[in-house]
Write the structure tokens for this entry.
Amino acid sequence: MSGAGTAIPFRGRPRPWLKPAVFTAALAPLAAISLQAVRGALGANPVAEALNRLGLTAIVFLVASLACTPAREVAGWTWAIGLRRMLGLFAYFYACLHFATYAIVDQGLRGKAIVADVSKRPFILSGFAAFLLLTPLAATSTAAAVRRLGFPRWKRLHRLAYVAGALAAFHFWLRVKKDVRQPAIYATVLGALLLARVVVFLRERRRRARRAAGGTKRANAAPTVD
């Protein structure tokens, strides 16, 4: 029977198969939608069905990417951090497909119609705003971007992922109109993840304050040499 001492190494043990498995699984929704589209099996309104499924997949990956840091801090799953960037990029990938399907297939790249939709329909506006917020996050997801921006600034920028998630959940909420159970679930999960981040932040701040106080006490207690 393993004790608590062996739990953390197990949780943090390298898993070389994990990234390829997640990458392959992340393409499965696109493969399923594409196959059904070719077969004409997306229902009576295939464009709306494709839009709904691509948008939902984007939200799923965005929530999964936001869950990685709490998973490490709360559950000790250090391996989750290695998936965070991939999951976030897949969220943006599916958001791009969602927007491209809307702009190209649904609207036929009619710029005036798209601008009118964005300006007059709140659910389109909220989804477009979420997409715009995800764009700089995807563009700065590399190690080079972290070095260029500096980690504190990069970290502040990437907190916008929570705003994008809230906007995406609101977009989803307005889209479904009546049965809001699914968007309510995603909104609740996002709220829980944000609360977990706040708790971790406050815990770290208290820990730093205790260390600083301990250092000050040791410095005051140190003997002086004439």
About this structure: The radius of gyration is 22 Å.
